[in-house]
Amino acid sequence: MSGAQPLLPGATLGVLGGGQLGRMFVHAAQAMGYFTAVLDADPNSPAGLVSHHHIRTAYEDPDGLAQLAGLSDAVTTEFENVPAQALRTLGAERPVAPAADAVAIAQDRAAEKAHFGRCGVPCAPYAVIASAAELAAVDAALLPGILKTARMGYDGKGQSRVKTREELADAWQAMGEVPCVLEKMLPLALECSVIVARGADGACVHLPVQRNLHRAGILAVTEVHEGNVPADLAEQAVAAAKSIAEGLRYVGVLCVEFFVLQDGSLVVNEIAPRPHNSGHYSQNACDVSQFELQVRTMAGLPLTQPRQHSPAVMLNLLGDLWFPQGTHAQPQTPAWAAVLALPGTHLHLYGKADAKPGRKMGHLNVTAATAEAARATALQAAALLGIEAF
Ligand code: ATP
Ligand code: MG
Asked: How far is ligand 1, taken at its centre, from the CA of residue 317, in Å?
């Protein structure tokens, strides 16, 4: 993108992928007066259901990509496992943000970790395992560890915790001997993430540091308020996230996930080349949301530093909530009315027809005047919904 001539409202913004992130991008783009086009094979995809245009083909389909390029003045992605080649194809026709090369790095844990090294940001000690020789050569100091497939993992899928060499060998075999990274299991004190948005002109802004609680490998709760993370660590995390984005010459919204270890040090975990679940609170707690930042970066509009106006807690609403007591009986509608009777609750549902355990169905943002009040209300909402206290 040249950056000189922004795409103004009235233009059409395209997105590869029709999941919930695409849906919330579409909402933000439409609110600003843009038209939208979504490419996703699923006729009921959350973003396809609300977009002006919905192209129902696979990501690699040349006709589908040509249609998307034909309809759109610029294209973005909402799903990190969209083949980078599809972005390259589109990039030859239209401005694409983020660019295929940056997405390709984020799609591959080995390439991603090499990039962290180039940026001087520490990550967990690791080894790449792509062959039997590399498996045999693994340093015992990496055990106990987590074996992760280099590609296509999300929500803790494609991961296996291993304590011994035997378990490691078995886990690699069970993964089909695909390229993997073995990471040392680190003693975590907490997890946090930072969302940055970088324009084609190099301007870079960020959302405040998010403190995240994962359960069973899936994000469960995000808390964002003054003091959620020690101030020096928050500063370090923002600086590291910006240097990772700059190193990629990144254009778009990027999420960087971090671990804070028990000794107080900060370690980068992974990046997502798109808005992120941990940034959803920004829809109701900040004057600019992560989805508006995505619109602005791809349209070449100015970026202004977002301001959080309310302390916030975000609760993920997984499909499990539709099945109280773990029954496999008929799904039951969660107690939305009772939750919405609490002050400062903002319900976001993704329009997915079938609730399934572990499936992200929506999220609840809770805002309040103080962090204590946001937390107290979020705990009340959690109790009503059957989400374990945090
Ligand atoms: P997502 O895409 O949902 O963020 P993912 O499948 O890419 O998840 P990771 O972020 O790599 O998975 O790991 C999921 C969670 O597992 C982390 O948030 C953390 O709680 C735990 N975890 C991962 N790697 C390590 C590690 N090296 N040491 C300790 N815990 C870890
Ligand atoms: Mg993760």
From this structure: 19
